[in-house]
Amino acid sequence: MLRYQSRLDPNGYYKCLGLQPAAPQAAVVAAYRAKARVLHPDVPKTGNAEAFVAVKQAYDVLSNRDRRQEYDRSAQQHTIKPEPITVRTASYRLPADLLRQRPLSRVTISVLAGLTVFLCLSVYEATSRLLAPPPVVTARIRPNAATVAPLSPSAHRVVLYGPNPVRLAGTPNFYVAPAGTPAILWAQDADHNTLVQLGQIPPFSSVQAVKLIRQTGMLEVLVNDRGNGFISSDHLTPGDVVAARSAYCSYNAGPTPGDGELLERRGSGSGTLLLENRAIQPAVVKLRDQTGAVAVSVFLGPGGHADLDGLPEGLYRPEFAIGELWSRACNLFAAGMRARRMNGEIRLPGSARIVVAADGANPAAADITDQAFERE
Do 2 and 130 meet the contact criterion of CB atoms below 8 Å apart? Predict the structure, then answer.
């Protein structure tokens, strides 16, 4: 008997996040954050590393529009549809002479009618089951689950993007590339002539490799003044600190913001602000208060604009950056970034307007470093 098979979620990514394939992009982010707060290994009692890795893998695919479209397209192309069922009713005619000799009794006719009805009902039930959509299984957290406190900004980034990279001793010439298995740092046990595990190195961590051990495929790296360690060459790729940072930001870029999306906002008030991007690249505009903290951060697409209201009162120094591939993890553009700070200040409440020049230049602005713009 043919059984209906659904291939709309072949890898179980939607099921892992408790979503339907038609769920909007915002629901993907919300579902992942809700599960990450409970399943992250650092969360007491409810932490589950294996479940968190599965949820993170599902989020990496579904939060990226291109990868999600490819996943859905591939699923639809391989969907197995049930073949139509053709019911054939066998007919049998008794010989005429036999009918004349022994006519059917009322009991026999009733039995045949009952069997016919039973057969029709069975065919209808089987067809209904074959054509019915598969049941939707939604993962739920039990009602008596422990209440988890909101994460701090640093802990929030760890949940979304993994542990922060580290830098070992020396001048980095390699960094740890993300892989399916963690990068292990080993130490030499001279007494037993073997390697012992020191710990795991997060992806995009920087190291200085000094020697390749061809027999084992391990790279000897500087650890500290007390000795060196070893990391499998399969987990390392050439690059300095800048290359490692750029790779980290690109890898954890997250979903591309929409035109006029508020990336950050602190407080509320009666101020209004009109933003316009005349550049051919995306731009992010920030307002910093007198302490240097970011009060508002807005993403603008090429030629985009935004009209904001309800902004907190105060005196602000505007700054903006243009570039490609905005990284939510790093709070900057991962490629071709140029940041500038405007010379004048704006005061809210009131109505203000900020225009990002077409070529990224503005005579009333001065260049600032990427690190200065990234600072929250």
Answer: yes
